[in-house]
DNA sequence: AGAATTAAGGTTATAGTGTAACATAATGTC
DNA sequence: GACATTATGTTACACTATAACCTTAATTCT
């Protein structure tokens, strides 16, 4: 039973999924790479929520959806492809994967991760990017990639926490 | 044979190790926690180089040093203690651990990781810290911790790369 | 279209990372 | 010294990921 709770109860999550699938199709088409049905299925599963999902969770979801048994390499290969094309990100601190909402724009992996509800949202800040470049440059380091994982409480979990404490 | 190459050939790495051990002893003493010989040994092994080391590598190093066999929980418990006390950091993207050069100052885990020589150095930038806080605040997110892992080339590997290409 | 080539996926086995649970030993407290 | 607490030893296992090899599907070439 992998009907995960919606990440944000106030939004129609179906749109997130269909948007992600549509732009993935278009993007793969433009790049001449193949978004096979397996890859698309994995992408769709990743997008079932805004919570990062582990490879083995995805594997179980795949198996549940398809009667046949699914082995780790099947899901890892699909994940590798999706990572390669920037359609998903990997959250290192969680060994988990999450859909990328803006795969057309090349960017680094920067996330706000709620320690209460597990939702992870991408963070984009030009100032932050610049700070990284500057700080690295101060050390004479030439940057090829970077990842930021920020843990804390999302706005709605902060609100819940406040209510609790009264 | 775990005599790893020195991280920086131009410095006397013995100082790094002895400084780390000395300040760890003092710090644990002040806090009333016990830097047992096992924990100190693991800390010293972590400090054998400026390259992050995996738990199983450390386990093998421990075993080599002590005739008796060493099981995973032994090293993980020591690592947990050292992490707890801020004496080491964990590099999530590498599943590896590295000594903290400034354990007395509470700080987040920010690293520059050379993809050529594997050396990881801590990055401290007030501007960067502020950028994170600001960016999170823009999203209404309350931050409890964060980690930054920047991959690229350290100055000396950049120099080598330039020489190579001539 | 058919053969050759390449790419994707299936299958088995195993490597690498981390923890649970319980037993023993060491340390600290009264 | 008896007791409680903390640390370590030990066994077993869970979770994450990849290697290697085989089969199937898609693409390319003539």
Write the layout of secondary structure elements.
The structure is a homodimer of 166-residue chains.
Chain A: H1 13-31, H2 37-46, H3 55-66, H4 72-84, E1 88-91, E2 96-99, E3 109-114, E4 120-122, H5 126-138, E5 142-153, H6 155-164
Parallel strand pairs in A: 3-5
Antiparallel strand pairs in A: 1-2, 3-4
Helix pairs in contact in A: 2-4, 3-4
The first copy, chain A, binds a DNA duplex (30 and 30 nucleotides) through residues 34, 36, 38-39, 54-56, 68-74, 76-78, 81, 95.
By DSSP, the count of extended strands of chain A is 5
Radius of gyration of chain A equals: 17 Å
What is the multimeric organization of the chains shown? homodimer
**At the third CATH level, what is the topology name of chain A?**
Arc Repressor Mutant, subunit A
Order of helices and strands of chain A: HHHHEEEEHEH
Tell me which protein chains meet in the greatest interface and how many residues each side has. A-B, 35 and 35 residues
Q: What is the CATH homology-level superfamily of chain A?
A: Winged helix-like DNA-binding domain superfamily/Winged helix DNA-binding domain
Low-confidence stretches of chain A: 1-7
Which strand order do you get reading across the main beta sheet of chain A? 4-3-5
Largest sheet of chain A: 3 strands, mixed
Specify the structural class of chain A: alpha+beta
The CATH architecture of chain A would be: Orthogonal Bundle
Estimate the helix proportion of chain A, in percent.
Answer: 40-55%
Overall geometry of chain A comes to globular
CATH class of chain A: Mainly Alpha
